Amino acid sequence: MTDNSTPSPGTGVRFRSDVSVELVKHDASDTDVLFAARVSTVGEQSIDELGKDPERSKGLINYLMRDRHGSPFEHNSMTFLVSAPIFVFREFMRHRVGWSYNEESGRYRELQPVFYVPGEDRKLVQQGRPGKYEFVPGTPEQHKITTEEMETTYREAYASYRRMLDAGVAREVARAVLPVGLFSSMYATCNARSLMHFLSLRTQHEQAKVASFPQREIEMVAERMEAHWAGLMPLTYAAFNANGRIAP
Ligand SMILES: Cc1cc2nc3c(=O)[nH]c(=O)nc-3n(C[C@H](O)[C@H](O)[C@H](O)COP(=O)(O)OP(=O)(O)OC[C@H]3O[C@@H](n4cnc5c(N)ncnc54)[C@H](O)[C@@H]3O)c2cc1C
Per the confidence metrics, is the pTM higher than 0.90? Predict the structure, then answer.
């Protein structure tokens, strides 16, 4: 796992501006879509037809996507190891359908002092009203205050957590002082259909027919997942984009 965190001298506290997404396990290809779809017309022989006529296969996937025949896109699986701040996981776990999650425990293990601080390229200022706002870059002063306030608060919160643990207080009680900028890790397993639904809501993309306005940090996770998936299922990925990134 990539860890670009910066250690803070003397405290063990580390700060990160990135997220990481590793594809740890997968059984996912365009042919999984094809055999599932063709059972409709050729029954159990559909598995023998896989190598035949690539142009027809491409056309079939595009038709399924366009007409929103979604179930053939469910016969595959991808497991990601995600490392991101807790506030990203809160948003992520709202995706209930076609996703399985397991996250590290703050009851059974001591939480590590790794915290999120926005990088220089993170737009800091929101303009407009909810649902119709845009983000613009922050000034150097706004970046400075953001970094300083976050780092100070994180250090204090983690020191407080440690003092309680040292005094014998249970991890599940002491963790209450830790902020949502703390990094956590989880395994998330999905299929192409549930991933497409997630991507349609958690990315901004020029080919999207329906715009979404996700928080940048969950979008960073989504973009990394998308890159893994695009390599595994290129025909499905192309059809998703060509049809406006609407999940079937
Ligand atoms: C930009 C953005 C802003 C958001 N802001 C907020 C916010 O301010 N507050 C907040 O609480 N949430 C917010 N959310 C979360 C949002 O409301 C959804 O919970 C989240 O996007 C998951 O979407 P989903 O329910 O479609 O996904 P899933 O839970 O994966 O469901 C997939 C699909 O299954 C069907 N489905 C699932 N459960 C049901 C059900 N119980 N009944 C009927 N059909 C069902 C629906 O068709 C659904 O689209 C936001 C999401 C986005 C993308």
Answer: yes
